[in-house]
Amino acid sequence: MTALEARGVTVALGGVEVLHDIDLALAAGRWTSIVGPNGAGKSTLLRVLAGLHPGRAGSRGEVRLGGAPLAALPGRERARRLSWLGQGGAGDAGADDLRVHDIAMLGRLPHQRWLAAPSAADHAAVERALRETQAWDWRDRPLGELSGGERQRVLLARALAVEAEVVLMDEPLANLDPPHQADWMRSARALADRGRTVISVLHELSVALAADALVVMARGRVVHHGGCDDPVTHAALESVFDQRVAVHRVAGQWIALPR
Amino acid sequence: MSDPRRRVRVVGGAVLLLSCALLLVGLGIGSTGFASVFALRDDPVALQIVWDIRLPRTLGAWLAGALLGLSGAVAQGLFRNPLADPYLLGSASGALLGVAFALLLFGQAAAGASPAAQWALRLGLTGAAFVGAVVAVLLTLALARGVQQTLRLLLAGVIVGVVLGALKDLVTIQSADILVALTGFMLGNTGLVGWSACAAMAGCAVLCLVAGRLLAPVLDGLALGEATAASLGLPLGAMRAALVAVLALATGAAVAQTGLIAFVGLAAPHLVRSVVKTTHAGLIVLSSAMGGLLLMAADLLARWLIAPQELPVGVLTALLGGGYLLWLMRRGALRGAAR
Fold this sequence. Notes:
Shape of chain A: globular
Radius of gyration of chain B: 20 Å
Largest sheet of chain A: 6 strands, mixed
Radius of gyration of chain A: 18 Å
Strand content of chain A: 25-35%
Oligomer: heterodimer
Number of strands of chain B: 0
């Protein structure tokens, strides 16, 4: 079953086309990674899929969520069903004064009635998300006191707290140390096992290969979309990186090493 | 969980308590001192001094400060910029230009000073100041092409402030009456604040507090970045417009009654943040109370320092606030402002 689908998506930024006529159907309940060289259009595609790309001149196409046009959904419903984690989202000094718990609770905003106090379900979801990213212990600390990796885990918890059916994450591993990268991988896998659709843009190819499916992009196009175990996918990956990487099987998992 | 929330209440309570104490002190400052307060019961002149002059101006200083503190908190969240402030954004100058226009058009008509005319004048001035503040904010935003670059936003605010200030001068020299009426405004003056001005400010303050509280979650979302806020399903465009309206109404209401008072809007949110970390809902309420306390204290100081003469409170806040801004910059507390 298809969770999220792009049909004929073309995006122009400042008069330059950065995505060319993309057709992509992402399977429900699976973890899909989007990879490709810098400037391939991965982040732009993720924004379009999240319904966050403003329709500008020269942009066309349609995104469908569960078969219905995403643009026709009310904002709050879209926000409940699609959760989005951007890259480097908390560079602002303004966020430094917000406490970790308040930030995670923002993820519940689409579920709350205006001005209503958070419900027991909201508190439970926030606690689950903060425990999942091991940020629960700092829940009363302001974001400004945390390190880059710790901040990233709080922002991840914010995205998880939405408990949406589709979770889109743009470079979620930024600033994370290896143990917490492994934790993130387990979280992504667990989400997919629970029937959620996970879509992540990743630069760490070995982490990306732990997903179910890989979308390989180059120069604004989807070059290949296939299973992570498929040798054709590995060949496509090696090809977009000019054969500068090679995919190997090590200790039961696929890893990409520089050649 | 409950601990940070309690801290917000404790800080808010402390600021309000201090404000009440200063209000009592304010009743006793003037050429007749506390003698008037003690003679309230049997001396109608003393009653008039305390009830019609000292109380409204002390309360008025608090209300104007609260409005400025609120607009500072909203501006800093909305523009995601720790230096945003009604004065630096040029909105205060726009509000003053609105006041000058209103005086030019209706000033003579209201000079009759019947109570009804007084009220109409207050409302008219507040409305004109609001319109001027909105125009100034929009001009600043257009000139800065967005809010991302602090330096550009500040430069645009300064330019808009200077140009609108010059326009105001042009309007002012049309008539000597307006010149006289506006001189007090330009220095920032609480001496002319009566009950009608207090009522106008209180009404606007309640309106702005309610609206600010309703819109506060947007500011929290925006702190995580534009796209994250949009991903939360918030109607950003409409809410931003509403926040600009709140900012302009708060600035306009304060400027229309007391003139240009610099830095209270900048300092109040910074002071609040240095004692308690909270969401924008808490920040807006606490910054209002803190702004009120600051301006009331400055007003008392301005009345007392060279008594029986008094300083225009705007001069005092400019000196104190300028020093505070310098100190903030040296401390590096304006992280991210230099980008």
